[in-house]
Batch of 2 targets.
Target 1
Amino acid sequence: MPENILVTGGAGFIGSHTVLELLLAGYHVVVVDNLNNSSGASIRRVKELAGEHGDNLHFHELDLRDKPALQKLFTGTKIDSVIHIAGLKSVGESMEKPLMYYNNNIIGAITLLEVMDAHGCKSLIVSSSATVYGWPKEVPCREDFPVDAINPYGRTKPVVEEMCRDVQRADQEWKIILLRYFNPVGAHQSGYIGEHPRGTPNNLMPYMQQVAVGKRPALTVFGDDYSTGDGTCVRDYVHVVDLARGHVAALRKLSDPDIGCEVYNLGSGKGTSVLEMVAAFEKASGKKIPLVMAGRRAGDGEIVYASTEKAERELNWKAEYSVEDMCRDQWNWAMNNPDGYESPDP
Ligand code: NAD
Ligand code: UD1
């Protein structure tokens, strides 16, 4: 019997790509999402992309904090493992509305774990973030570096990580993998699913994409006086399809009876500066990106990239796509869907 995997947040950017890879790998998938930051169109398009596997995807529009609804779902469907991706993720918004972030990200996780426990489902993968490292003193960031989150969104991640460790310590039937993503970008090669930020994007790639399609006049570069090769910040960009496959690798690892509660970085292991990213995007799109050089963005750190050794060794996973691939696929998504999921189907 194929395994039944519940994916929370499966309509979102990372979730939709993960659901597709799971379906293609032969899993049956149940998605729970409140569509707070996503659209049902992503689910429909994932079903189409999955072809003959599309019928193995079932969607429930519900909020994770709605415990009776979640209990009903677990009572009606046998779930083998859960991939918990749902969450709010905007750093700026979390500084304005910290309680909304703590409420959604922490109560959501508690409710999910309680319902799983009550139904004897103790196999879990959780989305964490490189944000837990804050701005590390050295790179590459290893999983054993101290946690030092620097904003309310970031602080919700170590709280959930610690909660998972405590739950597993108390009951060793639990098997939990915490995945710390670096900077996910790009889109599925089909140009059919991708990221659809609401309002003004905060992150580099979606902002640059909107400049390239003519929605915004220029990209503001936040700081060119860092001690890096060209003075701009360095990050670890990872193709969202690679990241999605990292979840399939983690799911396979959950069959290891001794896994306990483990944490893995998912990144490319390579650092790329803002200006290098701009050059790669210009090449992929054939568009000139007008730049406005500005001061540093508050709260930004200089250089962050992942050590990927542990994921390579223990998950047998390694990012395959280059920055050029990420830019090509991001541009393909943008061209096919100038208004994201509000665009007609390409
Ligand atoms: P996203 O906003 O596209 O997807 C998150 C999904 O969760 C959305 O579809 C949203 O509607 C849903 N959701 C939120 N709260 C919910 C709730 N209470 N109940 C049900 N559904 C809910 O974001 P994403 O980029 O796909 O990020 C997914 C996860 O990865 C988040 O946990 C985020 O913190 C983490 N992460 C993201 C990045 C990034 O740059 N995108 C980096 C590191 C970690
Ligand atoms: C940001 C979040 C981080 C989150 C991550 C998700 C902050 C301080 N951190 O990280 O918690 O996990 O997104 O991917 O918000 N840049 C520009 N101009 C822009 C946008 C960005 O120059 O318009 C620069 C930034 O200064 C940074 C780089 O591009 O150096 C990448 O920025 P971004 O995509 O926001 O990611 P992070 O800063 O790594």
Target 2
Amino acid sequence: MSTPIIIDCDPGHDDAIAILLALASPEVQVLGITTVGGNSDLENTTRNALTVLEVAERTDVPVAAGCDHPLVRPLQVADHVHGKSGMDGPRLDPPTTRPVDAHAVDFIAETIAASTEPVTLVPTGPLTNIALLLRHFPDVKENIGRLVLMGGAIGLGNRTPAAEFNIWADPEAASIVFESGLDVTMVGLDVTHQALMGREHGERLRPTGRCGAFVADLLDFFVQFHERVYGLDASPIHDAVAVADVIWPDLMEADRFHVAVETDSDLTLGRTVVDRWRVTGREPNARVGLAIDGREFGERVVERISRLP
Ligand code: RIB
Ligand code: CA
């Protein structure tokens, strides 16, 4: 039985790999890709999502553009990580396809309402679209199965010492999601920094087809940032871990804790405060990733991407 999913993303090198992993995996059915401003502006993230689907020869999957800025803050992009285009590295013609006319929030609401099975949402960027969905279409919660988001951290942040980028970019939206009562899984940096892929994976993928070569080019560019900042020779493929948790629920070790989001402090804005030792007495509101077998993750991603054209 294939799980229907919608990926809400800001491609983004790791978002692109997450989309391809989903397209290559029979365990999930991609009902649509929605985009949000984050790693780059909305025009770039939407163009990049269209590009990924064209590379994979899956232009049957609809793309809907969403919010171009956070709920109450200005957009601050991560071009220092992903480049000016949001997906620097691969050299591809601009996409010839276009997004649907509907706004992402309306598209998600309509798609969930029309689904005969509960839909799993997989947000891999700032949570602006998802927060607005919950605010404007509260009834959709009845047909949302899980919400598996890439974001946050039990430990150190990456955009600031305290906060991970997706949560930091729109902390008010993230707080709405964690307080929604949905079956939320948080795939944070503690796990994604164990899920590393690098040039070695890319060179295995390059001869497997157009998608393999595309991912190899993505990795070649993405690794440069992580070499410079973390001294790594590989990159955490953050967003693909969220998709992997839907495909292979036993791959990531996780447990339930209460998670709150800092929305006031300048110093720790966007921090996910995870009650790891259950000292607050607050009821757990999320399943939080703790660990993953990074080698196994990498092997499974290579095997699946190799199946694509
Ligand atoms: O902090 C990592 C997250 O921020 C990933 O989703 C990456 O694509 C960026 O959006
Ligand atoms: Ca992302």
